[in-house]
Amino acid sequence: MKAERYLSPKQAAEAIGASESSLKRWCDKGLLSMTKTAGGHRRIPVAELLEFSRAHGHQLTRPELLGLPRGTAGPRDYQEAVRALANALQHGHGGAVEQIALSLLAAGTTVIDACDRLIAPAVAAVRDARSRGELPLFCERRALALADGLVHRLSQFTAEATKGHRALCSGIRDAADSTALNLLWVGLRALGFQVEHLGNHNAVDTVCVALAELRPSIVAVASDGSPWSERRTDRFVRLADCAARLAVPMVIVGNGIDPNARVRLRYATCIHSLSELSSFVDTVVSKSHRLMH
Q1: Domain 6-65, second-level architecture
Q2: What CA–CA distance (Å, rounded) separates 182 from 277?
Q3: Spatial distance between the Cα atoms of 66 and 16, rounded to a whole number of angstroms
């Protein structure tokens, strides 16, 4: 993953069609986050500028300065975009994959919406094509690798929080593929957390040790749409019990969570999307609680 990119005030102003003096004033008032170089020059993170432009209604006039495609403003059609992305993934067209997603960002789509309404359904369409026998196995695996690369690209447009905002993100054994886990990871970043990403296929005991050591504000675990077994349910229940003992809210994010498993998961919240995760964070993991850690 590439390092976070920064712009000078002049570049940032050109990117959103504002004057440099206005941009500096917004920085000085704390409306737009910035950092300073060793020489005292202002630098604005690309992710912060993108969020600021959405929040204050500034259309991107030079999106290429932010690393986004040029000439993509206009109405957003998610259905058409999903079809185009699924087709590009299935045929291994990496350039088109990135162009489709970044065009939506340039048009004002948030990273959360890009994940929920574009990438997740496009990946589901790829899997459906494979299950119907319409797609060779190597094409599915190539598509998922491209999707993972796209998620990491989108992470450059999220501003990860400071140490005080910590979330633990993990997959547990036989419960999620890398794409589901990476979507969860970038969603947590977009929500302002510093994310401790443990990777996939972890033993429950491994995640429990991490919980005890790190004491995050939230633990988020990915689940893909594959059928739930009794063994998988047992693993999630054990992890939820561990999180409850440590007073860490646990959320399971994914589709196809078995209804019987939901009954046993008394100490975990099961949700389907990153937008639901955002609501969970707002209602359960309050800002004051996050800042305690």
Answers
A1: Orthogonal Bundle (1.10)
A2: 14
A3: 10
CB atoms closer than 10 angstroms to residue 86: 23
Question: What pLDDT is attached to residue 37?
Answer: 86
Buried b / exposed e over 116-138, threshold 16 CB at 10 Å, is: bbbbbbbbebbbebbeeeebeee
Q: Tokens 């919980």 label which residue? A: 211
- Domain spanning 166-291: which CATH class is it, in words? alpha beta
Share the mean pLDDT of the chain. 87
Whole-number pLDDT of residue 206? 96
Q: Which helix (H) or strand (E) holds 168?
A: strand 166-170
In one-letter notation, the amino acid at residue 18 is: A
Tens digit of each residue's pLDDT (9 = 90 or more) over 217-276? 999 999 887 778 889 999 999 999 999 999 999 999 987 788 888 888 988 999 999 999
Question: Which CB contacts under 8 angstroms, 24+ apart, belong to 233-236?
Answer: 233/258, 233/260, 233/261, 233/264, 233/265, 235/172, 235/173, 235/175, 235/204, 236/172, 236/175, 236/261, 236/265, 236/268
Q: Which two tokens stand for residue 37?
A: 């170089």
- Strand 250-253: give its sheet, edge to edge: 194-197, 166-170, 218-222, 250-253, 269-271
Model confidence pTM above 0.85 = no
Cβ 139 vs Cβ 102: under 8 Å = no
Architecture of the CATH domain 78-157 = Orthogonal Bundle (1.10)
| Residue 290 pLDDT grade (very low, low, confident, very high; cuts 50, 70, 90) | very low
- In degrees, rounded to 5, the angle at the alpha carbon of residue 220 between the alpha carbons of residues 233 and 168 is 125
